[in-house]
Each structure stands twice: as structure tokens, then as C-alpha cells.
Queue: 3 jobs
Job 1
Amino acid sequence: MSQKPSKQCYLCGKWANSYTRDHVPPKGLAGDVSGIWFTTLPACRDCNVKYSSQESRLRDFLAVIGSNLGIAEANGALAAFQRNVSRRPDPNRDYNRIQRAID
């Protein structure tokens, strides 16, 4: 008798015994701001990894347009963006575009 997979990916709907926990909304959007509550939902590894680059781009965009408005989350996201791009030895075109918008 086979056992039914235990969790269903909320993104693609597939059932699996092995899954990751995806933060909703993505934790990366809040930077290092404390006191924010995130829920987690089961996601297959493929879906969780597939959307991480889009989440990063959204965070970077929101950080640029929302910084210096007195919103702690936006300022935290901007700080996270700046840390991430400072680690890159060869920035990509997204970094250059966003950095020009900040300067």
C-alpha cells in the first residue's frame, strides 16, 4: 500500500513528501526589519527556487522607489539590496540600472 504524499505545493499544485517552506510574502522584501510576521506555505523545491530571482528583482525595485519615505521596511529592503550588490565582483545590468536610479 503506497502512502499519499504529505504536502501540496501551493504554487504548482503537485503533491510530494519532500518540500520546502516558502515565506509569504517573501522575507527578502522586508530587509532586516524586526516584528514582521510571515506565514510559510509548502512549496516544491523547483517552484521555490524558480521564483527567487523574480523576488529579488521586485525587492530591488521596491527598495529604490520606496526608500527615504520613512518606511522602515523599504529602508531595510534598500539596505539588503545594497549589501547584495556590494558582494558581486561583476555587477549585472539590473544592478547598474538600479544603482543609476539611486545615485
Job 2
Amino acid sequence: MQADPNCIFCKIAAGQIPAKKVYEDDQIIAFHDIHPWAPVHILVIPKQHIVSMVDVTEADASLLGRMMAVTPRLMRELGVTDGYRHVVNTGRDGMQEVMHLHVHAMGGPRPWLKG
């Protein structure tokens, strides 16, 4: 599996940096955001290093589908019962801070107040 030795999310996926994990399988990992914008704010990342949506190809369709499909169950398990948002920031102009593809899933009362 492709990894970037300087990427914080690759290090989390490899177990080199601790994270408050809520899910992990052979392709993806989900963990709580350390700077949450909502009462429940998790990140879902591929274990494979993909910089951003700009680098996604049709070959990644099942991986992206998996990332999106696992979040309903995770949000339910985390107590989110009245909706949530998926957000994918892409590139610097798209406000992506960590250059490793990730999906924010944010739920709870008014998670959009910060932006």
C-alpha cells in the first residue's frame, strides 16, 4: 500500500501516531478530528496515500464508495440521530489542510456554524 513517510494521516493509518479510532478495516480508517467543528466530527481516510480528490481516478470508485458508505453506521453509533454533513476539502484553495484525502463527517446541533 502506497504511503508518504511525511504524511500525518499515513502515520496514523500505520499506527505510528495515536488517534481516537472509531473504525478500521483493510482499506480505510476513521477517527475523531482533533479540532472538531461539531459535537461529533470524524475523519474517514484511505490507508493508501492519495493527496486529494484531484488525484482520484475511476479505479478509486469502490474505495470512495466505502468511505461514504461506512459513515451512516458510525454516526449512528456515535449518537448522531438528526443528520450530519460530509465535507471533502480539495487542494489548498479548497481549504484542505492535510494533503491526504479525507472525508469529514460532522453531526450534532448546527455543525455548520464554523463554515
Job 3
Amino acid sequence: MGRLADLLRSPFSFLGARSSQEERVAAYVIREHERGRTLAEILDDPYVRNRLTPQQAERLLDRPEIIRAFAEHDVAAEKATGRPPLD
């Protein structure tokens, strides 16, 4: 009954809300990426597939911390090649 009361008090609160489950999966994705795994491998993990719906997994990719973690890794990898950018 408490959830119904919360919904009636703020009917659109769910639009910007992130579940703690999504927070834990986002942390897992970043941690596994830091260990050298690809995004495809991580998203195919049973841990991720069992905890997120396809819509939540898609929304996960829009999170700034996920984008930042993968972008920083890609930039660092590109710098490590020693090639000048835009060859």
C-alpha cells in the first residue's frame, strides 16, 4: 500500500529514477571493463542479463559514467599506439 501512496504523491517520479539494481550493474560494467573486457562480453554476462530488462540495458548505455569509462579507455588505448591522430 505504501508504494501506491508514493505513486499518488508523485506520479511522475519514476521517469528520472534509477533503481539501485541499475546502479550495481553499472558499477559492475565499469569494473569489468577496467579489467579489459569488451562491452559485448560484459552485456552478455548472466549477471547483467538476469538483472536488467532489455530496456534497462539500453538505458545503461546512456549513463554518463558508462560513456566516460569507455571513452577514457578508448582514448588511452589510442594514445598508447603512438600514432598521430587522424592518420
